[in-house]
Amino acid sequence: MTTAPQRTAPQRSRKARDRISATWLHVLLIPLALVFLAPLWMMLVFSTHPETAIFSPNPPLWFGGAFAENFRGLQADTNFLRALLNSTVIATMYTVLSMLLTSMGGYAFAKFEFPGKNVLFGLILATLTIPTFVTIIPQFILVARDLKMSNTYWAVILPTLANTIGIFYMRQAFLTVPTDLLNAARIDGASEWRIYWQIALPIVRPALAALAILLFLASWNDYLWPLIVLTQKDSYTMPVALGTLVGLTRVSWGGIMVGTAIATVPFLALFLALQRHFVAGIAGGAVKD
Amino acid sequence: MTTAPRPAVTRPAKAGWWARLPKAPYLFILPYLLIFLAFWAWPIVSSFLMSFKDSRLGAAAPYGMANWSRLISDEFFRTALRNTLVILLVQVPLMLSLATALAVALNSRLLRAAGWFRFAFFAPLVVGTVAYSAVFRLLFNTDFGIVNRALTSLGLPAVDWLNQSGPAMTVLILAMTWRWTGYNAIILLAGLQGISEDVYEAASIDGATPWQQFWKITLPLLRPSLLFCLVLSVIGTLQLFTEPALITNSGPGNATMTLGTYLYQQGFRSFNFGYASAIAYTVAAIAAIFSVVQLRLFGRDE
């Protein structure tokens, strides 16, 4: 070893230093990761135990057999299945419509020159950092009093369709589509709608997929706006239904944990399967709920 | 929409401006624009006008400064404002430091099982605010909560988390940090991956320690991503509603009441739309001030 050429010495010390750094990295990160997973784990475990077990001196750390019983209690208290149906329909309609609207608008801003373009885009840009709180009261008056849409799916969907971040995200995506390709289709006589629908849209499919996931999730988890415009039990979305239970003492925590688990687990599974799309969507512009 | 007009280029050049005006882009924007104007742009204006109206009387009352002068003397508003700013000034720096550290760690070539760690830290971002608020309320339950069980089993005293102002605020801050750190870490991780390896190699050759590299290379180059996270976090925190509403019920007393829960109470419990609009515009004004300051301090190149 003493005869080894001098220039390997720094390399060996770098390797040793890396080993120490790597050890420290994992020593710090593993407990933190467990802390981050703990609330999810407890949610899953508690959904399978009756309230007496959750509140016992030794709370359960592993699954029990009370899931079905908890679910029946939850269903009796909130008509949870109806709330799930409402949430599914609303989130699906919102996602489809919002993708259509923002992709059409984003396409026009990215791929056309027309009078007023900069003014319109500037107007949308100017509202980007305005908190949604500012609009919530006029929106309520418009939807509930003027349009008389309280307790309908449209009441939840319509105001949230004015998604400013979505239009920026789609504009960015369409900027990557080569204009020559669109012009070639124009020369072949394709209509503008057909060029958008059959040429431009398929090219930005990865961006659309990422946006769709985030829009669906944002709608699925939205709480304040549905809470305001939905006042009848059968029109509640899942977060509103769950929210009515949390403040009460009468309802079983096992039931609430079933509700939170049902609202969350499909997305955890989806997240595992589609991590790339989730990450791309958030990294690419982010739709915050 | 299937009948979008043919492009302008096919028209005769001598036609008037209307014939030369491209119709397609307007038709593509129109559906979004109608929704944007009706449900977003107009409400922004309408809310401002409403803040000068006395809505308690119901019918059209004259314009005036009553709502705004009430804000200044309203002690509940002051409490809500103070609580919101405390959460903002504690939680956002805490979360962004943690998110930066996590992003650097997750980006490290030394990390094993990176996918598993990413899942652990990013999983909370798919959990809805209502769902996690319910879970945190249960975990921090004073008598039965698993957090107090853990504390007592370690020989530490149990804390009456939700019935004391300081601990209740702590629970909110911990809950929000749990929920949003991974979200910010993703944005910062994307920023980190945009930094060229060459810069670090050059710095290594010049003898810079990892610590020096972090402060002299990583942080400055990460500034645009950090600014983006900062602006979003500030706006999000100023609108904080679900967590204080469901975890602490704004309590004990009004100890965790935020601008969000106070606005909800004034607007949708008391139906005092004018006053609630004044609160809403205060939120917007604070958001604007923070955005300008952040851009001045961190966004010099943009």
Please explain how this structure is put together:
The complex is a heterodimer of chains A (289) and B (302). With 289 residues, chain A is an all-alpha fold. Chain A is 74% helix and 0% strand. Chain A has helices spanning 8-46, 51-54, 67-78, 80-111, 117-126, 133-146, 153-160, 164-175, 179-187, 192-203, 205-221, 224-229, 238-246, 253-273, 275-283. In chain A, helix 3 packs across helix 14 and helix 4 (80-111) packs antiparallel against helix 11 (205-221). Chain A is globular, with a radius of gyration of 26 Å. Mean pLDDT of chain A is 88; it is low at 1-7. Chain B has 302 residues and is mostly helical. Chain B is globular and about 70 Å long. The chains are: A mainly alpha (289), B mainly alpha (302). Chains A and B meet through helix 1, helix 4, helix 5, helix 6 and helix 10 of A and helix 2, helix 5, helix 6, helix 8 and helix 10 of B.
Overall SS class of chain A: mainly alpha
What is the structural class of chain B? mainly alpha
SS strand fraction of chain A: under 5%
Report the average pLDDT across residues of chain A.
88
Largest sheet of chain A: none
* Number of discrete helical segments of chain B: 13
Largest interface by residue count? A-B, 95 and 100 residues
List unreliable stretches of 5+ residues of chain B. none
Say how many strands of chain A there are: 0
Number of helices of chain A: 15
Shape descriptor of chain A: globular
Strand % of chain B is under 5%
Number of strands of chain B: 0
Mean pLDDT of chain B, nearest integer?
88
Helix content of chain A: over 70%
Rg over CA atoms of chain A? 26 Å
- SSE order of chain B: HHHHHHHHHHHHH
> Taking Cα atoms only, what radius of gyration of chain B do you get, to the nearest Å?
25 Å
Low-confidence regions of chain A: 1-7
Summarize the biggest pleated sheet of chain B: none
